[in-house]
Amino acid sequence: MKKSRFAKIIGILLILFLCYLGISPFIELAGKRAASVTAAAPIAFYVVIRMAMFGILAAAVFCRIFLPDIADSMVDFLLYPRKLLKKPAPLISPVQGLIRQGKYELALAQLDRLLEERPDCALLWLTRFELLADCMKQPAAAMQTAEAYFSRNGREFAPQNMQLLIRYRELTHRSGTLPLSDAMIATELKKHARCYSGRERRQLRELLQQSSESDIA
Predict the structure, then answer these.
(1) Looking at 25, 40, 66, which one is the last position of a domain?
(2) How far is residue 118's CA from residue 110's CA, in Å, rounded to a whole number?
(3) What is the pTM of this model?
(4) Whole-angstrom Cα distance, residue 186 to residue 168?
(5) Where a domain ends, among 37, 66, 95?
(6) Structural domain count of the chain
(7) Quick one: average pLDDT of 188-207?
(8) How confident is the model at residue 62 (pLDDT cuts 50, 70, 90)?
(9) Which is it for the CA torsion 143, 148, 152, 158, positive or negative?
(10) How far apart are the C-alpha atoms of 46 and 25, rounded to whole Å?
């Protein structure tokens, strides 16, 4: 809380400073009554450009400090690999049908075959995790599934990344091994931050902060 308040104060001061830098030439220009119209024209153009430049910077700082969701969404839109997001997911309807029928072993075998073809698909890993944790009541195997996925390099952004990480954290909390998920979250934020949206990264940092505060208490 104190860090957030301090960051906002610094942000306000920075915005005011940028605004001052933007309007200071205008103030100087207004004070030069003796300047001719011919001489004032290029100066006025310079003033407008400078005001626009520092105005944009001030707006960017304002959004980053006070509207982080909007700022993160803009960054995510520019940087996330859209082609990969549009990549069709593998057909898992047969697997879901087997799960509904209670044929868990067959569903697991089918999932493993699909993972051999698409080891990069987070949806398949999440489905495997949920099958083991929720249906087959094998939390240890489910945790191993999550750990195997998050140990992979070259992963890309997918909504299932956050879902799988949160589910893994739930299991570690139940089993009394919460530090395992804390370590995994810290690694994800450090090495695979672009696998998550800005809002998700902020949520993960809050989870780590909560764990740190509970340890201190």
Answers:
(1) 66
(2) 12
(3) 0.63
(4) 14
(5) 66
(6) 2
(7) 91
(8) low
(9) negative
(10) 8
Confidence of residue 198 (pLDDT cuts 50, 70, 90): confident
Token readout for 130 is: 């949920």
Does 127 lie in the same domain as 20?
Answer: no
DSSP 8-state symbol, 50: H
Is 76 domain-assigned?
no
Residues 157 and 81: beta-carbon distance below 8 Å: yes
Closest to 99 (Cα-Cα) out of 130, 72, 125: 130
The pLDDT assigned to 163 comes to: 96
Residue 131 is encoded by which pair of tokens?
């099958």
Other residues' Cβ atoms within 10 Å of the Cβ of residue 71: 17
Q: Of the candidates 164, 155, 154, 158, which has an alpha carbon nearest to the alpha carbon of residue 82?
A: 158
Token representation of residue 38:
């011919």
For residue 43, CA distances in Å to 2, 19, 47, 171 come to 44, 18, 6, 65
Q: How far apart are CA 146 and CA 127, in angstroms?
A: 11
What is the spatial distance between Cα 137 and Cα 141, in angstroms, rounded to a whole number? 9
Please answer whether residues 146 and 136 qualify as being in contact, where contact means their C-beta atoms are separated by less than 8 angstroms.
no
Tokens encoding 204: 């993960």
CA–CA dist 166, 144 (Å, integer): 14
Q: Over pLDDT 70: what percentage of the chain?
A: 57
Compute CA distances 146 → 100, 129, 160, 164, 168, whole Å: 22, 7, 11, 7, 7
165 contacts 157 by C-beta, under 8 angstroms: no
Say whether pLDDT at 59 is over 50: yes
Rounded mean pLDDT, 48-75: 57
